[in-house]
Write a structure and sequence with these properties.
By secondary structure, this protein is mainly α. It contains 2 helices and no strands. The protein has a domain at 33-80. The N and C termini lie far apart (52 Å).
Length: 81
């Protein structure tokens, strides 16, 4: 008697996995990774200025730059279509 009725779906929620197809989400992530890459690059410059090894920061800069490039490219492809 206390059984819940079956859900018919929630129209106000996006289905799982739909976020990465949204241009708004892609732009947000692209900007986020671009800012992270720029910040990492600043850390590399600071490390070199004070004489610390910068290998880890260079690696993180490369990863952030790669992610930003891929996201900007995907965003621009979606904007063209």
């Amino acid at each position: 008697m206390s059984d819940r009725p079956p859900r018919s779906g929630r129209p106000h929620r996006a289905p799982h996995g739909a976020g990465l197809e949204s241009p708004r989400i892609l732009r947000f992530l692209a900007v986020l990774f671009t800012v992270a890459a720029a910040g990492s690059l600043v850390l590399v410059v600071l490390d070199r200025a004070i004489g610390r090894p910068a290998a880890g920061d260079v690696f993180i800069t490369a990863l952030n730059s790669l992610a930003a490039f891929v996201l900007w490219r995907k965003f621009s492809e979606q904007a063209r279509t």
